[in-house]
Amino acid sequence: MSDQKPNKKPEKKPDITFFHPDLLEVPADGKAPYLKGYRCKGCGQLDFPKLSPCPSCWGEEFEVVPLSRRGKLYSFSDNFIGQAGMKTPYSFGYIDLPENLRIFAQLEGEPGSFRCDEEVELTVGPVRDNRDGIPLISYKFRKA
Amino acid sequence: MKLQRKVYIAGVGETKFGRHEVDFDVLGRSAAFEALKASNIDRPTMVQSAYVGNGTNGMVVGQTVLKDLGMCGHLPIMTVESACSAGGMAVHLAVRDVAMGLADVAIGIGCENHTLHMAQGTAFATAMSDIETVHGAVMTGKYAMRAQRYMYETGATAEDLAMITVKNRRHATNNPYAWFKGEISVEEVVKSRVVASPLTLQQCCGIADGAGAIVVCSEQMVKKLGIQKPILVAGSVVRSGPYHNRPRDITGDDITEETAHQLYEESGIGPEDVNIVELHDAFTIAELLYYECLGLCPKGEGLKFLRDGNSTHGGKCVVSPRGGMLSYGHPIGASGAAQIAASVKQMRNQCPGYQVDPVPRVAMTHVTGGGLSGTEHAACTMHMLVSDW
């Protein structure tokens, strides 16, 4: 009986499972994913993530630039105590791209296996669970 | 901001740091009351403005702390938030009010209770609006990356970093306000469990509760109050962290270097004249890097400075004489104010069992705050203090 009552509560919208589309492009045709850089049409500054307005000239128009898929692992840490709600251990690091940009990202691979200045490449995978317990997929890096 | 007239510290207060069963307001009030009494202030209406630093305990923290002291309704009370820099920033704002002639007596307080409110076994993260936080960033891991890179570039070892904990805990041995103190060996530090590689548990500040408070006043008022040992605030600087997403040297610290430079310039006092420093030793690596960033030694010689005993009793500049955050723990909104309180006690020769000898005449404090992506830290607050008697 109660099944037939109209449900007035709006259906809870599922949390996004793909992290922000402004950041990461995963082409539908199976081509390699890439991070999206934003070049200010006013002053030419390239940023990741997208900053709006451009902090250098307050420009509001940008051109999307696919960023290099490979970079150098500047530094990293294997975390055994993490954020509330995140499974440990997990590793993250700073990756320096040839475009003179530094990306903070989780690293795919075993704790203890990373080295400073080694080559890493972009990959895509779960970084945490969202509010609904669904894995949140985003950019990560792994040994190239 | 160069101070436009002389500002003095009249009195200070601090609670013992550690795990408290009373909340931030009781801690803050206790430190404030102690500081007011030490300043010979006998009624709440003598204070003309109050700033209360806090990171995580909610809204209208300032009024909640000060209501039982009868201060609400008599003066503007403002809560100040800048994560780990909040307590220092609260003192800065009190100093600024006196310097600009807006007040003759002002109080800066830092207080925090974490342990009643935080899930055990988790690390501090910044707001979920930050792109790094979404990807799992925690403060322990971010400092660990600095350690990782420093060790990679310089060949420093885990044992080298551990010496910072050993030194600071030794400094705190007889300090009744410190939490973790006394003898600990390099081996015990290195072999404690890994929190964020390469940092182990004993290289990380404890998650603690506590408070500190500082009463500042004008030159005329410090005489009127009959303060015997006034401490001159020779400089008080707050800066925000440069923001960009390009590679930077994380074995340095742009915001600390800039804040220190400004403080030296405005106070007319250089690093070679500083007798004691309380700095942001939330993790061992931080103290080591900050020797260099503060100019206590040349770039690249931090480890030598430590090994040569220059940062302990008998050295060029005693760093973390109270024991630092590695001994006190780090209630984020409280530490900046508590550092100043502890430094004033050192300058007044009020630290039996942990007194720096000769009694320091010049002290410097330093706190950074906030892991915001694209910055090393969101905020940095520094103070330069000089005995004036």
Automatic annotation (TrEMBL), chain A:
Domain ChsH2 rubredoxin-like zinc ribbon: 31-63
Domain of life of the native organism: Bacteria
Organism placement in taxonomy: Bacteria, Pseudomonadati, Pseudomonadota, Betaproteobacteria, Rhodocyclales
InterPro entries recorded: ChsH2_C, ChsH2_Znr, NA-bd_OB-fold, Thioester_dehydratase-like
Domain ChsH2 C-terminal OB-fold: 65-123
Pfam families: OB_ChsH2_C (PF01796), zf-ChsH2 (PF12172)
Descriptive protein name: Benzoylsuccinyl-CoA thiolase
From TrEMBL, chain B:
Coiled-coil boundaries: none
InterPro entries (UniProt xref): Thiolase (IPR002155), Thiolase-like (IPR016039), Thiolase_C_2 (IPR055140), Thiolase_N (IPR020616)
Protein name (database record): Thiolase family protein
Domain Thiolase N-terminal: residue ranges: 7-220
Source organism (scientific name): Aromatoleum toluvorans
Domain Thiolase C-terminal: 245-373
